[in-house]
Specification:
42% of the residues lie in helices and 16% in strands. By secondary structure, the protein is of the alpha+beta class. It has a single domain, classed as Single alpha-helices involved in coiled-coils or other helix-helix interfaces (Up-down Bundle), CATH 1.20.5.420. It has a 3-stranded antiparallel sheet, with no helix packed on it. Helix 1 packs antiparallel against helix 2. The N and C termini lie far apart (43 Å). It binds zinc ion. Zinc ion binds next to loops. Zinc ion (ZN) binds next to loops.
């Protein structure tokens, strides 16, 4: 395989891993209501893909889970969300981790 071939092969693997990571978050979201422990499991798998392939975490996924205890965040259930002075403060109800993110109003598309 040529050098370029290997590069393309790696990029392809990374792309597939990124898709799988996003899919795992969708699955976690869907299953949280019934089996929250399974949602946490999906988050752990997604995180493993992220670290293994050195993937970038899309901004919208940053508020979906706790990076410390890797539990899925459902506002009002597994985390507490507060919006104050242009910032979102999320408190993990499992480990107590607090993250502050800039608040961006959703754009109409
Ligand atoms: Zn946590």
């Amino acid at each position: 395989m040529s050098r370029k071939g290997i590069q393309e092969w790696k990029a392809e693997h990374k792309r597939i891993a990124a898709e799988r990571m996003e899919r795992l978050f969708e699955l976690a979201e869907g299953i949280f209501g019934g089996r929250p422990e399974l949602a946490d499991r999906y988050v752990q798998l997604a995180w493993r893909l992220k670290t293994r392939y050195n993937l970038k975490l899309p901004a919208r996924l940053k508020r979906k889970f706790c990076r410390k205890c890797l539990s899925f965040w459902k506002p009002g259930v597994s985390c507490r969300v507060r919006v104050q002075s242009g910032r979102v403060t999320i408190t993990c109800l499992k480990c107590g981790r607090i993250v502050r993110l800039p608040y961006k109003p959703k754009k109409k598309e």
